[in-house]
Every structure is written in structure tokens, then in C-alpha cells.
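ok so I'm stuck.
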Amino acid sequence: MKKKTTRVVGAVVKEGDKYLCMQRPRSKYSYISEHWEFPGGKVETGESDHEALVREIKEEMDWDVFVGPKIGTVVCDYPDFSVEITAYLCKGGDTEMKLLEHLDARWLTRDELADLNWTEADRMLLPMI
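replied:
not stuck anymore, here's the structure
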């Protein structure tokens, strides 16, 4: 049986030489539970990638984000589902973000990114940044 593939967008938020990394909440899927990711989420029917990113960041972090150029797209097959994630370079808004869903957030340089325990899909994006 073919797994459903979910279209997802990710915000690679850059400030100076640092990138925003978010730690996912606990989940029933051990392979993504408490792993690190770029913020974002599912693209709803009829929604553009840009609209989905702005909405997801507002819902998850109560933060405005300015969506810039596309970085790239990867497809990742997990044991229970597949995701097609498209990442965009973004700039954060003027206000402080809030951790409404994530466990933690870190601002890391390009060289420090590999030190985190990333979800596999987000790890696949790292060489594109």
C-alpha cells in the first residue's frame, strides 16, 4: 500500500549568520518526536506555499515571517507516512516569537546545524542552505 505524501513547507529563518531551529514536541512517532526541524507545516487545499508558511508560523509561534526565495524541495519516506517539504529562506518579524507548540528553539550558525538531532526530512535540506 502506498503511503500518503503530505505537502509541507519549511521556513529557514536567517538572522545575521544564524538560522532558527525548532525542537518538535513529543509525538507517537519516535523517529520525529523531539527531533529538530525548521518551522512550518502542512499546505492546506487551495493554499499557496507562501500562504501556508505565513499561517503556520503565526499558529505555531505567534510570529510574522517574510517569505523569500525557495531553497529547495525534498521527499522523505518515514515508516508511517511521506512528506514533500519545500523550504524557503525567510526573515522573522520585529516581535519576539513564542514557543506555542515546540519544546525549544535555537539560533545556530551554518556549521553548528549538523550538531542537532534533525528529523530526516529537515536533515536532507541542510546541504541546500
